[in-house]
TrEMBL record:
All residue ranges annotated as the Elp3/MiaA/NifB-like radical SAM core domain in the record: 59-286
MF terms in GO: catalytic activity; iron-sulfur cluster binding; metal ion binding
SMART domains: Elp3
Organism per entry: Sphingomonas baiyangensis
Protein name stated in the entry: Putative DNA modification/repair radical SAM protein
Cofactor: [4Fe-4S] cluster
Length: 415
């Protein structure tokens, strides 16, 4: 490998990290360096990249330790057989970069992943060393997210959880068949075993901290994973079902979806075109329905086309479900329970909570609902309100043209 300076390495390895979508920085414990103790904070305002649940922007240095890899996964641009320029940081180079960027107020944390070099254990040792040095040698209190390697020794993965705020282990592909075909060197059993071990450690440590204040923190922001969408034949129904299973079995904070992107010198087994980016967006919306709106996986799957298993691209999954199961509507907004109001297209969690508060004091009309939603036209066919009953709309056989978002031609030079 040719000798590269730090700037050249950073250019290569920051670009190589862009394919990993799971770099959220939410959910961790609050730490700060006020009073002159330590370096960094998990609370300040950032400049780009990741967002906390309250809307704060968190900037992360997102890089790979190296883009060299001994594996030959068909979908990965950094696979062994790929003809890409290679680079590698040492653990101390990543530590110094992180501290230098933080002191210049460029970042507030680190997202570190890596290709596999020499062996899984060796690579995991280098990743852990970065986090250990930041925490112990420099008292860094900012956010750290480590991408762990499931083939590594469980003790090394455990050490990652002691230093990182969040850890993630990628399941890579939604189906077992897809993983065997496109990443034959990876094992679903080992991946899920590592996730199960991480879940147990998180639970055990949380329990220990309730009894002993001196017990160490362990991945306080939990664990996450990522799936590649469109590289294999998995349908949206397959992906939604797998994601729900991962949430339930391993207590994940997030499942991220990454639309497959064609890569240079691609394997012949890969599709020639990337899936529509809207497909990735619809999967995130379906994920939201299960996590915050009370939908069961089978209900989200029911919103997909029965013949293809794919969610519609022109309307969101919530509207697709409502149109497919119109017998549940219209709902009286002054009487319906919260779990059903959350199923009304156009009403979000905040709007439903506002409706529940307001209707304790008076009956709400359509104008009241219009103040809580972006498009009351989307809501009208599905609700009954004071002075409003959608008689004509409820009997209309095809509601979709009335409630689907209108397509508009964007103007390049619009003011």
């Amino acid at each position: 490998m040719a000798q590269l300076d730090t700037r050249q390495k950073l250019e290569i390895l920051a670009d190589a990290a862009k394919y990993d979508a799971s770099c959220s920085s939410s959910g961790t414990t609050k730490r700060k360096s006020a009073g002159g103790k330590g370096i960094g904070s998990t609370e300040g305002m950032g400049i780009c990249h990741a967002y906390a649940p309250d809307g704060r922007c968190i900037s992360l240095l997102k890089i790979l330790l190296t883009n060299s890899c001994i594996f030959d996964c068909h979908y990965c641009i950094n696979r062994k057989s790929s003809n890409v320029r290679r680079a590698r940081f040492t653990a101390q180079e990543v530590v110094q970069l992180t501290l230098a960027f933080y002191k210049r107020n460029y970042i507030e944390g680190l997202f570190l992943s890596s290709g596999i070099i020499r062996s899984s254990n060796y690579t995991m040792e280098q990743i852990v060393e970065v986090a250990r040095s930041l925490r112990e040698d420099h008292d860094f209190r900012g956010y750290i997210h480590l991408k762990t390697i499931p083939d590594a020794d469980p003790e090394l993965v455990h050490q990652a959880g002691l230093y990182a705020d969040r850890v993630s282990i990628n399941v890579e592909l939604p189906t077992t068949g897809g993983l065997k075909r496109l990443a034959p060197e990876k094992s679903e059993t080992r991946i899920e075993g590592a996730m199960a071990g991480m879940k147990s450690a998180i639970i055990d440590t949380a329990d220990a901290r309730t009894r002993y204040r001196s017990a160490p923190r362990f991945a306080p922001a939990g664990q996450s994973t990522q799936m590649i969408v469109g590289a294999d034949a998995a349908t949206d129904g397959d992906i939604v079902t797998r994601a729900s299973s991962l949430y339930g079995r391993f207590g994940l904070r997030r499942v991220y979806y990454s639309a497959f992107s064609p890569i240079p010198d691609a394997s012949a087994v890969l599709p020639l075109q990337r899936p529509p980016l809207m497909r990735e967006h619809r999967l995130y919306q379906s994920d939201w329905l299960m996590r915050f709106y009370g939908y069961q996986p089978r209900e989200v799957v029911a919103a997909a086309d029965p013949s293809t298993g794919m969610l519609p691209l022109d309307i969101d999954p919530k509207l697709a479900w409502a149109l497919r199961f119109r017998e549940h509507f219209p709902l009286d907004i002054n009487r319906a329970p919260r779990e059903m109001l959350l199923r009304v297209p156009g009403l979000g969690v905040k709007a439903v909570n506002a409706i529940l508060r307001a209707r304790r004091w008076r009956r709400l009309g359509l104008d009241d609902v219009a103040r809580l939603t972006v498009s009351v036209a989307k809501v009208r066919p599905f609700i009954v309100a004071e002075g409003w009953r959608p008689v004509a709309l409820a009997d209309k056989l095809d509601l979709k043209p009335l409630v689907a978002p209108r397509r508009e031609q964007l103007e390049l030079f619009a003011a």
